[in-house]
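Researcher: Good morning. I'm working through a list of sequences from a screen, and I'd like to move beyond sequence-only analysis. For each chain I'm collecting a predicted structure so we can compare shapes side by side. This is the next one on the list. No need for commentary yet; just the structure.
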Amino acid sequence: MMNMKRNFAEKICRTFFSLCGLALLAAFFSCYNPSPLYGTWSDNLGNKLTFLADNSYTSVISIESVYDEDGKLLSNEAETYEGSFSVVENVLSLSTEYGLIVTEWDIRGSILYIDWTMPSEYQDSGEVKHLKLYHN
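Model: Good morning. Structure tokens for this chain:
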């Protein structure tokens, strides 16, 4: 009889600790909130930013677009950048091979508003492109 009580108590303890472990895992994963930046953002001008969960990004930034008189895009010169990014509240830091781009970002609906400052390699370095990108 004593052995049966001990086995029952052991089963209750195992069940209790298993449930506690599951509750801790559920609490941990419910607190995780992925960055709203993850994914691909683009516009009709050829600008595109892709943010990955490993804090890397790739981007294609349109430098010069040529349109005909009807507004149809004839050609688009663009530069590709890649590197890592970090976010602190609404400040985004993008590393490029030409330096660091630090900007503020805002998402309203499914539109990302961000300012891209052209790196120093360009004649128009310091030029700010006000990007309005849609989530794909």
